[in-house]
Amino acid sequence: MARTAASVAATELVIRRAEPAELDVLGALWFRSARAAHDYLPALQALTEPEAVRIFRGFAADLELWVATRDGVIVGLLGLEDDCIDRLYVAPSVQGVGVGTLLLEHAKALRPGGLHLFTHQKHAAARTFYERRGFRPTRFGISPAPESEPDVTYVWTGR
Question: What's the whole-model pTM score?
Answer without folding.
Answer: 0.89
